[in-house]
Prior knowledge:
185 residues
Amino acid sequence: MPNVFQAFRDMEQTARMLSEDVIASYNLVEQISSPFAMRVYIRSVFTFIEGNTNAIQNLLLVANEQGSYALSEEDRIALSEINVTIDSRGKASSRKAFVSVGAKFRFVFRLYASMVREPVEIKVSGAGWQSFQKAIGIRNRITHPKSMEEFSVSEEDMVVVKTAFNWYATEIMRMNGAFIVPDSP
């Protein structure tokens, strides 16, 4: 398992690589403005959001394992995304837990905020958060379509997704600006 410094660097590299994908897909939309290009952009935005959130999640788990950040047992289990059940025969089994994008982001962000030198709260009262919630619905619609109409992406959808991306990126940058980067080993 990497150390905290490596996990932080991995988080930065993930954000950099996936933001390049978002930029490239947005440029594709600007060049050809097709439904395909718009769907690629939306998928790229959510790959960035989920990949970056997962990298922060990994940082939290590594920091906890190495003793530089203490998670509660509940938070550690929730970050591990595992559900454990015991059947009627007394046998335990585990399976991957499903956590929605919005709930996971708020949970991971709350924990990440507690690692920084100046507590930062996520801004969930404005248009950015509302766009984020709407954008999740748009992403779900185009990735799990139930009809041909659900493949379509409107200009309004694009504005919502762009606003959501900008809000998410701004929130992460605010958080990273308050983060105390660990010394290199």
